Automatic annotation (TrEMBL):
Gene3D superfamilies: Enolase-like C-terminal domain, Enolase-like, N-terminal domain. SMART domains: MR_MLE. The keyword ATP-binding does not apply. PANTHER family: ENOLASE SUPERFAMILY, MANDELATE RACEMASE (PTHR13794), MITOCHONDRIAL ENOLASE SUPERFAMILY MEMBER 1 (PTHR13794:SF58). Its cofactor is Mg(2+). Pfam families: MR_MLE_C, MR_MLE_N. It comes from Anaerospora hongkongensis. GO terms for molecular function: hydro-lyase activity; magnesium ion binding. Keywords: Magnesium, Metal-binding. This is L-alanine-DL-glutamate epimerase-like enolase superfamily enzyme.
Length: 355
């Protein structure tokens, strides 16, 4: 199967007052279509929350597409490493998302060629995967709104939720988390700190979170501070989760070798695609560390269902506005679609609207 053409689009989706903890008010989705010589179309994507999407699109069009067009799909592993080497001096922040979009499209193409859903193509371990609620908690919400969001997730059958911290001061954050915990005592809870604490505050905060039976504290420090995370992991009983700001397996290895993380959160559209995501998960398994991918449950449900050490995926409505169909969720578990490839149905009219 020859890779005949590549088309890249830049789609800007407004997020209103912002979702999650980054404060982003829009997401730029870089959507790629790879067409084979027999007319099969694979779609892949990456995204940017703080701008720069046009740079990712430009790299795909000017630098990566010439390396891919005319090549055999079966040689993708070799092509992947050629792109990795060629873009190394650019740094990973723009180059890896560009490579990720192509890689996801290739895997979608493969699934469609073989008539198999992606999770079966990758080797299914599970028919469903736990999904935790993350899309109904922002720094701008009142305590009442946070409680309402948590209860709504519980009523829908979710077994776990995630809240945000780090923007309102540790005492206010703690009070908000305590209030939610009182209303949903049976839910597993995780706290995303969005890299906003220093070590001293993170340690204090983590010890108080332990008293509330919090499963993990996510990115308490800036992700470059591997040693700080190691010290926290050593001092705290709760799990330390990192990954959404890490680029490729070698950055994850630094955390794993130092015992600085007990939950890894690779994001396939950012780390190098499905191929690199799977390498990261395998390395984490070797260290006895679990994986719970960041964002994009529509794609990650397949990776989670085919990865033995993946414990959950994240419900977060980042790209719902350009989807023709959302992920099936039943009693707190996500079910991978049975359509060939990744099975994501795009709403092309909405995509044209947001281009």
């Amino acid at each position: 199967m020859v890779l005949s053409s590549i088309n890249a689009r830049l789609v800007t989706i407004p997020l209103g007052a912002g979702r999650g903890g980054s404060g982003a008010t829009q997401v730029e989705v870089i959507l790629v279509e790879i067409v084979s010589n027999d007319g099969i179309v694979g779609t892949g994507f990456s995204y940017a929350l703080t701008g720069g999407g046009s740079a990712i699109k430009k790299i795909i069009e000017d630098m990566l597409a010439p390396l891919v067009i005319g090549q055999q799909e079966i040689r993708w592993e070799m092509i992947w490493y050629q792109i990795w080497d060629k873009t190394h001096r650019l740094g990973r922040g723009v180059a890896l998302p560009a490579l990720s979009a192509l890689d996801i499209a290739i895997w979608d193409l493969r699934g469609k060629k073989q008539g198999k859903p992606l999770y079966e193509l990758l080797g299914a371990h599970k028919e469903k995967i736990q999904i935790y609620g993350s899309g109904r908690a922002t720094h701008g919400m009142s305590i009442e709104q946070l409680i309402e969001g948590a209860i709504s997730y519980q009523e829908e059958g979710y077994k776990a939720i995630k809240l945000r911290a780090g923007a309102l001061g540790i005492n206010n954050d703690l009070a908000r988390i305590k209030a939610v915990r009182e209303h949903v005592p049976s839910l597993q809870m995780m706290i995303d700190c969005n890299e906003r604490f220093n070590y001293t505050d993170a340690l204090w905060f983590g010890k108080h979170l332990e008293q509330l039976d919090i499963y993990w504290m996510e990115e308490p420090l800036i992700s470059d501070d591997v040693e700080g995370h190691r010290r926290l992991a050593e001092q705290l009983k709760l799990s330390i989760a990192v990954g959404e700001h890490l680029q490729g397996r070698f950055e994850f290895v630094q955390y794993l070798q130092k015992g600085a993380a007990t939950v890894c959160q690779p994001d396939a559209p950012l780390v190098g695609g499905i191929s690199e995501w799977r390498r990261i998960a395998t390395i984490a398994e070797g260290f006895g560390v679990v994986v719970s991918p960041h964002f994009l449950p529509e794609l990650h449900v397949h990776l989670a269902a085919s990865t033995v050490n993946c414990v959950s995926i994240e419900h977060f409505p980042l790209i719902n506005d350009i989807l023709g169909e959302t992920l099936t969720i039943e009693a707190g578990y996500a079910v991978p679609p049975q359509r060939p490839g990744h099975g994501i149905i795009w709403d092309w009219e909405k995509i044209k609207h947001f281009e």
